[in-house]
Each structure stands twice: as structure tokens, then as C-alpha cells.
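User:
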Amino acid sequence: MIHVLVAAIAIVINGVKLPLQPPPMMVHGELYVPVRRTIEALGLQFIQSGSQIETQVGARLVVLPVGGKGAIEVKDVLYAPLRFFTDVLGAQATFDSRTHTVTIVAQLVGTSSNGLILTHTSAERFGTVSAVDLTSDPPTVTLEYNATIHTVPIGTNAIIEMHDVAANVVVPGELSDVRPGDFARIYMDRDGHVQRVEDAFGSRVGHIAATTASEFVLADGHVIIPDRTTQIVLNGQSAAVSDLHIGDVVTVRYNVESNEIRTILASRPVASVSPQPGEPAITAINLDNNRPLRAGDELTVTMQGTPGGAATFDIGSYVTNLAMSESSHGVYTARYRIPNGANFSDVPIIGRLRVGAANAPEAQAAQTLSASSSPPGISDFAPSENASVNTSSPAVYATFVADAVPVNPSSIVLWVDGRDVTSESLRTPTFIQYMPSYAYHSGIVHVTVRVADLAGNTTTKSWTFVIHR
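Assistant: Predicted structure:
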């Protein structure tokens, strides 16, 4: 498929001009617009279910398939033909080639230009998180939408949900997991009491395979192009794109609405430097666990070196200056509990030691550390939910997405109609496929798949389809 990004075209919905990123796109001469941003600007709910997009227009459920003649995905953004919004959603749309402007007009219930949707019983405020204040009483989250800024108090009873869009998983979280740059929805009752906060973000974790002065490429082929607002940190210090090298491990976090890259946390092994005579020294750093960890797991770091000093350690760029205590002569220890929201791969553990006025050369543990607080996502499956198939031996499969910690293939289990068919299936870290060797009866077929990553985070999904013969 040939596609061309058209960055100069503006989108105006009911008189409100949307940000230019992500831009519209031309496909074989037909204009495509970003699906999620356009649907939500119309005041409708965006729901991604398997390989299709759903939204509720009044009493009618509207479905947009992904692929084929439906939505297409480019650089993690879903696009749909402009005619989808005119034909299916009942909107009116025009494209002015002189002003390079797409204008969409729709009289849909809930349309909002300031990030607020009201119903008879509830309210929903949404936008990009610009600040999270955990010290106020109660804590607050500040959202920005179309240059409108609102600060919302978050009570202790509010449910916090973290949506990792790249992995297609939703996990419980804490308010401290909500980061500036994420896209959040805050659901309230009519009195303004917050009931639930949904924080959505995208992330990429991997090794840098190639770099230029302004961008880099991950080993999985994703091209990362930061802009002037992107915060880049390398081994706990502010950095620029030009400071990043091939082989560095990075976690990229981006806004799912604008696709803007907000933070890049990079880690790199430190060079080994021998201390000068008489200087303090670090002789060894060890971890008590070599496997990937998940939220709630504890890690003990032990460092040996010159006694009588003040010691700290870093976990790459993710956690820095963690204090260590001298548990015995020249032996420094510390324990660290993996928090919710942790998501990093193969990062170095870097130790520092200061004795009096002198600093020992930095040292690094022989082991690296990986951790994830999110389970693998199930990005696609077939037959799809409630699908009707005309074969008695349909292929059943599911595909998996993991970020920092890979899927454990031996953890994958598949049940079809209550029978464990794992031993008859093909399993890899990215999918499981079952080809039945016998015919199933007509009617409803129940499928359940379970998968875990190497840290032990587990996902289970169940669905049904129907056989008609």
C-alpha cells in the first residue's frame, strides 16, 4: 500500500481545529484521517476490540475493521478514510484544497471542544496530562485539551487504570504511575467526585540498532524521532539524541493521541576505570536475583568496597541515587521493591561510593536487570469474538505483544471447548496456533488462552465463536 503523510492539512471538527499531529494521509488519492482523535473529537468513545474499532452512536454500535478496506495502521496510529465519518457516522465533511483544511460537521450527542462530556448522570473529562501533584490534599491531575486547562482533585477511593496501548493491556495502577504527557480520561459523577482515572500511554522498549543526529532505530525496526519537547535521560543524566549510541537500551513513552514522544530513558554500561593508589574503590556489585522481576518483587543489591563511605546505586536511568547502608565492614546493601509502572529491559546496575571527600570510580554489576509490571497483551485472535464460521475444523490462534520482558513460550496454554489443546498447537513467543485434527459440532465454541512473560505477569482471555454447517 502506498501512503503519503500530508502534514500541512488541518482538521476542523464542529469549528474546533485539531492539532496537526498525527497528520492526515493520502492513500491512492483518498484522504485518510486519524481515527481515535477524530472519533473522540466528535464526543464518541473509541474502543479497540481485537482487529476492529467500535464506537456507540446513540443506540447503534458502529464497527470499523482494521485492515483491508477499513482502518490502516501507520507508525502506531490508526487511520480511516474520510468517507467512514460521512457515510457511517452521519457527519458532513469537505476538503478545501486551497486552504488545505478538512472540515467535519456532526450533530452527535456528547460533542465537546474543551475535553468535557456530560450526560444526565455523569461527567467525563479528558486530555493530555500536564501535571500530577501528589503532595496536595487531595492529590490532583491537570489535563490540557485544545488549550483548555483543568485541574481535577482525585479522591482516595478513585480507581486508577493504566492502559498500555502498545501492548494492548490494562492493569491496575496508582496515581504516581500517571505521567505528564500521557492521555487520561477522568470519570466523575455529576457532583464532580472522581470514580475512575484511565491513563493511556504507548511504550517501546529495546536496543538501539542505528542512529543519526536527530533520530534512531530500534532493533525491531521502529524509527524514533524525538522533538524539542522530548525529555531524554541517559544513565540518569539529561542528554540529547546525539548522545545516544548503538546498543543503548531505551524505553520510549509517547502520547497515544498526538503520537508525540514525551520521554526517552536510555541506559548504557559504564566504562571500567581502575582507582588511583589511595583512592576509594568498589570491588564488586552483586544482585540476589537474575530473573526478570514484576511489580512487588524485591531486589537486594550488595556492593563491596572501601569501608566507611556513603554508597548509592542506580537502576539505569529509571531509578537513581538509591541509598545503601554499610551492613558490615566494607559491605553495602540495599533492598528495592519493583513498583507499579516499572517497565525496563537489560538495564545496568551502577554503583557509586564516596569516602570522605573522594569518589570511587563508578562500577557496574555483572548482571543486568529487567522488570515489568504489565502482562503480555493479546493483540489479535481468531476466529474473532462471536464470529460465524462455516468449517467444522477452524484454525484457532492468538498473537502476543510484550514490551520489556519477553513472553515465556512454555507458559502459553490454549483450551477449546474446555479441552487443553496446547500439546497439539504451535507455540512461539509471539503466537499460538491450533489446527484441529477432528471436526467440532455445530454451535458455540468456547476458547481460552493464557500467557505469561518471564517475570510471571499473566494474561487470560476467553471468547466464543459459532460454527454453522
